[in-house]
Design a protein that fits this description.
Blueprint: E1 2-5, H1 20-32, E2 38-41, H2 54-70, E3 75-78, H3 82-91, E4 95-98, H4 108-115, E5 119-122, H5 140-157, E6 165-168, H6 177-185, H7 187-191, E7 198-199, H8 205-210, H9 225-237, E8 242-243, H10 248-263
Parallel strand pairs: 1-2, 2-3, 3-4, 4-5, 5-6, 7-8
Helix pairs in contact: 1-2, 2-3, 3-4, 9-10
């Protein structure tokens, strides 16, 4: 899954693809680099980010989704709003990627159920301005697993089919570096819930901190791409269904290597 942030303030590339034509061009480039899916989002979820209005989010994502699908691109929409999800699917999106797992908008589950498209339910404890204060766990793998299981039960009770659901542990969302590493190491425990897993580690701060300079300065977001590729290879080897990344080419290669390794041979 390649990322197209149609925002001025996303954490690693905010503003680069804010213009509609630039966003569409970037989405096409990601497909050429090997993306199976292009994730279009119009609202930054970086720590501390303020929300945009629904009207602004719609204006950002719908034209880009419509243009990309017209070019034959498989598109997902990254949104926490039911009306944006509905409009995106009408414009051609074939997956809804909701970082709140349905908690931010009580109508989301019903809308997704009606569309029938796959639905990424991410582990989430609150909006960007409050999530860091909620990064408190005694056993992060067990608690994330339990909270995801509860969300699945609730969205299914509202009509979402079991076959639609994809789970995301929500790396970096109400989680510190220690929590993120524990979740990656415990991905098999999350897989036991029986749903495909999406892993989104690309350029996140816990990678930059791992690779910090001797003086403690974290590695920059864009200079964390090699570490992202390592996470991708390990996640694919562990059975993840999808990885969400900014730099597609090397990660697509890593997935192919992991697949060949797993089956014990090349093509």
């Amino acid at each position: 899954m390649g990322v197209v942030n149609v925002t001025p303030d996303s954490f690693s590339d905010g503003g680069l693809w804010f213009d509609e034509r630039a966003a569409v061009r970037h989405g096409l480039e990601l497909v050429q680099e090997g993306a199976d899916l292009v994730d279009v989002g119009g609202e930054s979820t970086r720590p501390g980010a303020a929300r945009v209005s629904q009207e602004e989010e719609l204006a950002r994502v719908v034209p880009v989704i419509r243009a990309l699908t017209a070019e034959g691109v498989t598109v997902s929409v990254d949104t926490m709003r039911a009306e944006v999800a509905r409009a995106a699917v009408e414009a051609g999106a074939t997956l809804v990627n909701d970082v709140s797992g349905g908690l931010a908008d009580p109508d989301m589950s019903r809308v997704v159920a009606a569309t029938g498209v796959p639905y990424v339910v991410m582990h989430w404890r609150g909006h960007s301005h409050e999530m860091e204060s909620r990064a408190v766990y005694s056993d992060v793998v067990a608690e994330v697993r339990e909270e995801l299981a509860k969300r699945v039960a609730l969205v299914m009770a509202e009509g979402v089919a079991e076959s639609q659901i994809v789970l995301d542990p929500g790396l970096g969302f109400a989680k510190n570096a220690e929590h993120n590493w524990a979740l990656l190491a415990g991905i098999d425990k999350l897989a036991e819930l029986g749903f495909p897993l999406l892993v989104g580690a690309s350029r996140k701060r816990f990678l930059g901190r791992l690779l910090a300079d001797p003086d403690g300065t974290p590695r920059s977001f864009s200079r964390s791409d090699h570490a992202t590729t390592a996470v991708t290879a390990l996640a694919a080897r562990a059975g993840a269904w999808c990885v969400r990344v900014h730099e597609v080419g090397p990660n697509a290669d890593a997935v192919r290597v992991a697949a060949a390794w797993k089956r014990g041979g090349g093509r």
